[in-house]
Automatic annotation (TrEMBL), chain A:
Its main location: membrane. This is Quaternary amine transport ATP-binding protein. The complex is probably composed of two ATP-binding proteins, two transmembrane proteins and a solute-binding protein. It is a peripheral membrane protein. GO terms for biological process: amino acid transport; glycine betaine transport; response to osmotic stress. The keyword Transport applies. It catalyses: a quaternary ammonium(out) + ATP + H2O = a quaternary ammonium(in) + ADP + phosphate + H(+). InterPro entries: AAA+_ATPase, ABC_osmolyte_uptake_ATP-bind, ABC_transporter-like_ATP-bd, ABC_transporter-like_CS, CBS_dom, CBS_dom_sf, Gly-betaine_transp_ATP-bd, P-loop_NTPase. One of its GO terms (cellular component) is plasma membrane. GO terms for molecular function: ABC-type quaternary ammonium compound transporting activity; ATP binding; ATP hydrolysis activity. It comes from Marinilactibacillus piezotolerans. It is found in: Cell inner membrane. PROSITE patterns: ABC_TRANSPORTER_1, ABC_TRANSPORTER_2, CBS.
TrEMBL record, chain B:
The chain crosses the membrane at residues 50-70, 77-94, 100-123, 144-171, 224-243, 255-272. Pfam families: BPD_transp_1. This is Glycine betaine/proline transport system substrate-binding protein. The keyword Transmembrane helix applies. GO terms for biological process: choline transport; glycine betaine transport. Its main location: membrane. It is found in: Cell membrane; Membrane. One of its GO terms (cellular component) is ATP-binding cassette (ABC) transporter complex. The lineage of its organism: Bacteria, Bacillati, Bacillota, Bacilli, Lactobacillales.
Length: 402, 282
């Protein structure tokens, strides 16, 4: 493996008295102290790490830890105060504008937290943007952009505008746009953080699938340990602008470098495996008033299910129907499902711990519905998911040596 | 109170300074002002003559069609345009209307040609922003009549000084709203444009200006309406048009003719404003 990106002692200071703050940093002073003495905010404090070609390198930290600042220095959307950024051995931090522009156009693309799509451009025009600024002629860039959209299954949407698409779809466009000019490095700044949990997991899967084929070097920013462990080949943990640990997920879970990482890992870890939100699956539903017993029966047959959840307006959970009842309605020629909705379905909130779930699910004849305060259906939990998660937890407990 | 300490400061001859500055400009740049006056007058006369060549009924139908498409095929504004313009024609105000129309269009176009680049400059440069902001404040707060004086000094009387004073009065909203529109473009849009390696002008023309368009159009709308109001005031220094009729009526204390012409101005203002707003909403 070769080193693709090397970051050496990268520093970013916001505010006046830059020099004074820089001196304090060299003396090994921390963020709080420097703020107190000089009024300058340390965004990134002497960060160093290497990213190998073809790996997904996750930079994780809570808000204010400097991870977004750090990633923006890699393509110099934010100018570093000090330090070097080497991409294939070339120092980005010392580049002239023209050279930098060439790197941005050909080597490094970025995906943004709120998608960063241009609202006045269609999906295709958005995807073309990176090629357009390079001056590639219209026919060729459209062909490439359409190819990129096609790879993401987005071609049918090419003439729509971003606000006509859901968040998940928009971010797929963001990713397709970033890939359209075939960059070597992808910078993803909290790319999935604005999405619903289920969509988010789909996107993580898609990213991993894409990576299998493309082998890009991906630098992925997140505040979510769960996400880091899922997609990261290696993870860097940041705190107060400093990189406190770099390692594989396994290494970080097993050997936290200091108290901070340990607490972080513990905290997030518990929520990671232990709540309903984290293990729930996409529910199969029919909408009351929209679908009748024939549709319901057909769905159950194609999905091989014996029951289906019924929702009303705004995904509000009403209950479930079973196949036998639906078949009876079809025979009696009744078109509304209303009379056969059963309501004895267990409901839990998304914060419910798995241990509590286990008891509920043990007694239930149906899947357990995960709902919010307004009874809006978020997902379902079936027995297999809980057992899977519990098994995984036990494994991790053993690693911790308990 | 006779010997207040303030009385020891001799009067500073501000007005003399300004007068001598204007005199100096008039004397030394007379050839330039003369050329602008002659060329401008010829140009605007030609435009007005051309407009007057169009039969009123054709002109009215064109405006009605514009109103129809601007309001997405609603009926209200086209109807208002039709009745309003027929009223103006009926009252024998067609020729002054065309003069006013020319003055407003020319003053607005000059304001936009100067104002949009100035607004872009302000949004890109803090120094330009710091210098131009007080200049714009000055232009907007100085009573409009004051501009008529140097306008007359430079250009004499007629349409050109009218347009000159209208441009000074109407320019600020376009500059301010262009600046505001570009500054309002979200950080993420700018970062997205930058991250793909846009040059400064690619970023400006492909991302910032399109996203600032709605705000800029609001400013341009203001500019057109301010130009209209100033064109009326400029009738005091001999700019022809509907304003001239109002001033004449004022000087002779004729209530009827004054209101007839005033109403024509209101009709023109409403038509211009609504058509522009309609197109901006698209």
């Amino acid at each position: 493996m070769t080193t693709k990106v090397e970051v050496q002692n990268l520093v970013k200071i916001f505010g006046k008295k830059e020099q004074q703050a820089l001196e304090l940093i060299h003396q090994g002073k921390q963020k709080d102290e420097i703020l107190q003495k000089t009024g300058a905010t340390v965004g990134v404090n002497q960060a160093s790490f290497e990213v190998q070609e073809g790996e997904i390198f996750v930079i994780m930290g809570l808000s204010g830890s400097g991870k977004s600042t750090l990633v923006r220095m890699l393509n110099r959307l934010i100018e570093p105060t000090e330090g070097n950024i080497l991409i294939d051995g070339d120092d980005i931090s010392k580049m002239e504008k023209n050279e930098l522009r060439k790197v941005r156009r050909e080597k490094v693309s970025m995906v943004f937290q709120n998608f960063g799509l241009f609202p006045h451009r269609t999906i295709l025009e958005n995807t073309e943007y990176g090629l357009e600024v390079q001056g590639i002629d219209k026919e060729e860039r459209q062909k490439k952009a359409e190819q990129a959209l096609d790879n993401a299954g987005l071609l049918p949407y090419k003439d729509q505008h971003p606000n006509q698409l859901s968040g998940g779809m928009q971010q797929r466009v963001g990713l397709a746009r970033a890939l359209a000019n075939d960059p070597e490095i992808l910078l993803m700044d909290e790319a999935f953080s604005a999405l619903d949990p289920l969509i988010r997991r789909d996107m993580q899967d898609e990213l991993l699938e894409m990576q299998e084929k493309m082998h890009k070097t991906i630098i992925f920013i997140t505040h979510d340990l769960n996400e880091s462990l899922r997609i990261g080949d290696r993870i860097a943990i940041m705190k107060d602008g400093e990189v406190v640990q770099v390692g594989t997920g396994e290494e970080i879970l097993t050997n936290p470098a200091n108290d901070y990482v340990e607490r972080f890992v513990e905290d997030v870890d518990r929520s990671k495996v232990l709540t309903a939100e984290n293990i729930m699956a996409r529910p199969q539903t029919v909408r009351l008033g929209q679908s009748g017993p024939r549709v319901a029966l057909n769905r159950m047959r194609t999905e091989s299910l014996s029951s289906l959840l019924v929702v009303g307006e705004n995904q509000k959970l009403l209950g479930y129907v079973v196949a036998d009842d639906a078949a009876r309605l079809v025979k009696e020629n009744i078109t509304s499902l209303e009379s056969i909705i059963r309501t004895d379905i267990p409901k839990v909130s998304k914060e419910t711990l798995i241990h509590e779930l286990y008891d509920v699910i043990h007694e239930a004849q149906t899947p357990v519905a995960v709902v919010d305060d307004n009874d809006k259906l978020l997902g379902i939990v079936v027995r297999g998911l809980v057992i899977g998660a519990l098994a995984k937890e036990r494994e991790e407990v053993t690693i911790d040596g308990e | 109170m006779e010997n207040s300490i303030l009385d020891f400061i001799p009067r500073v001859p501000v007005s003399e300074w300004i007068s001598s500055m204007i005199d100096w400009l008039t004397d030394n740049l007379a050839f330039l002002f003369g050329a602008i006056q002659d060329g401008g007058t010829w140009f605007m006369d030609t435009v007005t003559d051309l407009l007057l060549l169009i039969p009123p009924i054709v002109f009215i139908l064109i405006m009605v069609a514009l109103a129809f498409f601007a309001t997405k095929k609603k009926i209200g504004l086209p109807l208002f345009t039709l009745i309003g313009l027929i009223y103006i024609q009926n009252q024998g105000l067609w020729e002054p209307l065309m003069y006013t129309f020319t003055l407003v269009i020319v003053a607005s176009l000059i304001s936009i040609i100067i104002g949009v680049p100035a607004g872009i400059l302000m949004s890109k440069s803090q120094i330009a922003n710091a210098i131009l902001t007080p200049v714009l404040d000055f232009m907007q707060t100085m009573p409009a009549f004051v501009y008529l004086i140097p306008a007359v000094a430079f250009f004499g009387i007629g349409m050109v000084p009218g347009v000159f004073s209208a441009v000074i009065f109407a320019l600020p909203p376009t500059v301010r709203f262009t600046n505001l529109g570009i500054r309002q473009v979200s950080e993420e849009m700018v970062e997205a444009a930058e991250s793909f390696g846009s040059t400064g002008s690619q970023r400006l023309f492909k991302v910032e200006l399109p996203l600032a368009k709605a705000t800029m159009m609001a400013g341009i709308n203001q500019t057109v309406l301010l130009a209209l109001s100033m064109v009326v005031i400029a009738s005091m220094i001999g700019a022809p048009g509907l304003g001239e009729r109002v001033i004449n009526a004022l000087q002779r204390a004729q209530v009827g003719p004054g209101f007839v012409a005033g109403l024509a101005l209101v009709v023109l203002a409403i038509i211009l404003d609504r058509i522009m707003q309609g197109f901006n909403k698209k």
